[in-house]
User: What shape does this take?
Amino acid sequence: MNARSATAATKGRILVGMSGGVDSSVAAALLAEDGYEVTGATLKLWGGESDSGCCSVADVEDARRVCDTLGIDHHVFNFGDEFNAHVVDPYVADHEVGRTPNPCIECNRHLKFDRFLSRARALGFERIATGHHARIVERPDGSRRIGRGADTFKDQSYVLYMLDQPTLAAVELPLGAMTKDQVRAKATEIGLRTANKPDSQDVCFITAAAGRETFLGDRIPLRPGRVIDNTGDVVGQVDSVQLVTIGQRRGLNTAGGGAPRYVVDVDPANDTITVGDRDALNRPAVELSDLVWSHPDLATFTGPVLAQTRAHGHPQPGHFDGATITWDEPQQRVAPGQSVVLYDNNEVLGGGLA
Amino acid sequence: MGTGTTNDSSYQPAAYLDCAATTAMHPAALEAMIPYLTQHFGNPSGAHSMARDARRAIDDARDAIADAVGAPGGGNVVFCSGGTESDNLAVLGPITDSATGSAIAICSAIEHHAVLEAVEARHGLTVAVDEAGVVNLDHLTHLLRNAERPVSVVSVMTANNEVGVIQPIVEMAEVVRRESPGTLVHTDAVQGFCWIDLSDITAAVDMVSISAHKFGGPKGIGALILGDHVKLEPRAIGGSQERERRGGTQNVGGAVAMGVAAAQVAANRNDVAERITPLRNRLADGLTAAIPDSIETGINNGDRSQRVASICHLCIGGIESEALLILLEREGVFASAASSCASGAMEPSHVLAAMGIDRDLAKGSLRLSLGHHSTATEVDHALAIIPTAVETLRGSR
Assistant: This one.
């Protein structure tokens, strides 16, 4: 029998998803201080090379050692098959048809909450927690919403827009009221080895050295494409049409001089990229598919919203009619496949894919 | 449900059923090694009497191990760090007439990764196994006859570490001698040594690997036992130890303890197997009866004649062993599933895949392995706990 957990635990069992970074390390520590019986778990998602070694071994080691420091149990869950099926394969398939996927959102949707929560419940944990910079806001009617984290620059509410009421009721986000500096200070104060670990960047299954092009090129044949302007004249070429994203400026091999030109359309079926000036990139509206809402009552929502189209983008005002957001001012075209998240002030209502 | 238990260093599980992973040291082996870590700490490569004492101790251990595996004389026992290094050395080390740099190696598809990856490094081929996990000798014959390059080594394990299948090593060696006389034959007996008298096998093959911690010795010491004719290129260079077959100061205490433990195994093997076999049978029969949709992996009609006495391996439908092991640990049952990757995550088993077991079913694998110190009480505890834990997991879906 574990003496520590038997005496200290009062708030029930909670399983904390630990990536090996400072945020989830501190999240686990705070929950333990708060009286939860905490166990850490690291998800093994990607089986190939990553920037922290094969299977992210160094990150798993960090998580394990932090748990040792905190005196809590630690497990590793291999969700590799599901990660491939729900995140990696769709990531490749999206690029093949010229869409711009957000693998972190798909991972949250299918693995870090859904699959992780069902595993946690199977093991008798009442709740789960993560180190995301976001809050869970309890509303007067008892429902819950994701709210923006206190650290504006680190806010991760955008990537959590898919969480529904049952999930929100089972999740703790202990870092929501903290800035990143405060998180690091806390980690230093309690002697966690991850206190000064750099933040993770970019897509976990793509290494900085090999890059997206190598990753995709190993899985699908990358085709060269021609770059045309709005008159149909060929003005450049690209090596891999599947790697081009709406709004991109560089790497189009167009002649220099003149106003900057942006990718305004990608047509992989015809291996064609269309470029245009800043105005040509803007759109009055964006239509959404695959809509999900934090609460079932919102499924019929229409009205004014703030909508965010990138993880660290600025929310823009518009009007949502049930399928389409019409912007108050024209906005840069959202790449097909990107998530658009709808906010009421700082609270997430839901979102969908452009 | 109990609470997490692993952080208490004094914790002893109610049922330690992971003896194929490692065993507790035999008290006599522990006692024997301590003087070589304290007063007799000499380096066996030196010239003075302390060095000679250490050297004598190592050579006595060599003799004990040679005797225990049925090898003539002790001179060809090469000490190394354990089973993995021994396997590596056997596959990658041999200097044969055909080893011109282009030779390949062959092993069964269910070898430990220590063999499998070494064979891969030699651009090797794998021999199929049947549904029971037994190596297909017709396929081996086919591979040897059709190999495009010379074959330096064929390696097949004595008993598999996951499911415990005993392989027909003597027959396998006969096939190799007939089809490819210049090829060396190796067997990884890391799991087999505890349960199988190796005399006939040692006589039939050229190289045998064993690892001390699987049979009551310490971790960090293993051996490759060689036929007189086998010439090895060392993998660890820069020292002339082990007759220039493995550089580096020897683990004297480890070798001494390994010798004692090996002698214990050889002396007591039949008695231990006689006691453990019915315990394992009771465990396997009880669990498959109590857990719907569970199978004893690769066993038909309850015939366990081709299994080592220690291992009960199940595939349980509709659950994931990763979660099951956590529940079992909470209730004091320490077991394992497939092999772990570097992160500690469970990897889908290549052994079960080679036996043709469906990947989803293989995710519900459970290996319960007994050892010389296993008791009926431990088996009873496991029988009481495991079916309930499976039910809990199935109910949560």
Summary: Confidence is low (pLDDT under 50) at residues 1-7 of chain B. Residues 97 and 364 of chain B are 46 Å apart (CA to CA). Chain B has 13 helices and twelve strands.
